[in-house]
């Protein structure tokens, strides 16, 4: 085991703090690095101070940090994702500013720029997109299938804790030490001990390993929930399309995450134990790492984009007043994409010396995956065709997606040709392509879902004006930032370059940094929208629960939903059961009898493991072996102690359920249905007048 420089506090010393570099060598690069560290420290102080000043520690602990309610866990996932999104966007702006600084070295050092693109990719994939997807799925899946919670509520809480602790490691790397310079893929030899002996790759390794465990547990949880907890009558072909996309994503998680975890642990063995899995000597082969990483990496793309497809399916159907066109073909296309995603990983290294035959096989497989994706696009357009379309915020995100995502998809088909890919793979053309897929394809979908289901979660609608401003800024910002990169990529500008010399690149880089600033404004507009919506929430209350005239079961209960979700588990008879019930006039029935309902008790195990695993990772990064051993013992003891807990559920008496449900039914019967043309008016209390004239 490597022990050089190891003592009671491992290799942790004064030089690990950014302020040391600023004192020893004050320059712009050090100022930027210290500003980032200061933002983290000030942010922690502000949060802790605010919670203390407003005496919120008690409610935070009782109602959120120890809750096993799937809805609250989902909301916490989304809050975490938005916090990490702020850092990811800021890093993107700094990178674009560095490249727009003109020919020469700019204001950042090459190593700092390498850290930025490494953390930016890691954060946006693992700690923005994944938690955002999990947050929406956590909130929605039980509600959509008529269940009271996920299959394993406590495991759900543990998954959140592990994900958050891993994400915090990336924040800690700003303050203590530095992050990896090996990219979000962490390719050896750039992350090997010989090339990079610092702590950076270790931060990446342990954050990925721990978050990967949490992600895998979540995939298992979602799959079991949908398989086992569907309401009576909800056959698979009656599932909402969003649930189908989560099933397929869960399968991708279960089979794709282990290769990443194994690759990261083998890289750790190389660095910590002097193994040679991925070295150039003693039998090592770095291509083994590339294969294992992308065996995870390409299914990961669809793990993220499939749930966004599900969101768009729900949004297009609701805001065009039609049932989803081509449901069966959409299900088949979703499953086809999930299967094909495991057959295309090698196109990520067409330039690495494989045979022409292998490249051709994987090129054809990559082109084939465009077929089911095209089926989805045509089905969505057919859903919109002759529908009574409302240009609400979720629909605007969806329309922006349809136009921009097709460009990204077509550029992907171009890259599926190995001869073309060989020329542009290591240029900004590829950067433009995957951002063209991930921003409109994933982020826009998540923001559409955020606007669509926010009133269900909190009982009031988001501000429509600021929502429209956000759509415009995200769309324009994306186009200005990334579409120019196609052109400079074709002109030969390498990706990951912190400087350049060809003056013909400069105009494009100026446009790109302007676009990055607009994206920053888009992020700020999301925050402003939330603040304005909270301020004016009394004018936008929708307690009845159905402000959009939607189709699926989650809209058939109050907003926000009670802790037990459904007073009586529904019996499903139709694919869009709630829409069908509204059509029949019996959407809000009064049951003959009520029963006691069991819900999971609060528990602190998820929070405990979050803290313990965070300290454990920090100890491993800095070689503080005694602390790592102590945290391992504490984590095992926490697990064992929890297994002795006899009471894991609390019972809500039937009489309490009856009182709450009947009070809500009285609200339903005393509310005035609102036409969809007035859905943003204060009169909309969550009882939409059914509009099924355009149903096909």
List the helices and strands and how they pair.
Blueprint (H helix, E strand, L loop, with lengths): L17 H7 L3 H26 L3 H9 L4 H31 L9 H36 L7 H23 L24 H29 L12 H33 L12 H34 L7 H14 L15 H13 L1 H15 L8 H23 L2 H7 L3 H31 L5 H27 L15 H30 L41 H8 L12 E4 L4 H17 L3 H19 L5 E4 L1 H17 L26
Antiparallel strand pairs: 1-2
Characteristic key phrases:
696 residues, disordered N terminus, two-stranded antiparallel ribbon, mainly alpha, single chain, 21 helices
Short structural summary:
The protein has 696 residues and is an all-alpha fold. The chain is 65% helix and 1% strand. Strands 1-2 form a two-stranded antiparallel ribbon.
Walk me through the structure.
With 696 residues, this protein is mainly alpha-helical. 65% of the residues lie in helices and 1% in strands. The protein contains 21 helices and 2 strands. A two-stranded antiparallel ribbon has the order 1-2. Helix 6 packs parallel to helix 19 and helix 16 runs antiparallel to helix 17. The protein is globular, with a radius of gyration of 25 Å. The N terminus is likely disordered.
- Proportion in helices: 55-70%
* Structural class assignment: mainly alpha
Radius of gyration in whole Å, from Cα? 25 Å
- Count of alpha/pi helices: 21
N-to-C span: 67 Å
Name the strands of the widest sheet in spatial order.
1-2
What best-fitting shape do the alpha-carbon axes yield?
A: globular
Give the low-confidence spans.
Answer: 1-5
Strand content: under 5%
Return the string of H and E elements: HHHHHHHHHHHHHHHHHHEHHEH
Q: What about the largest sheet?
A: 2 strands, antiparallel
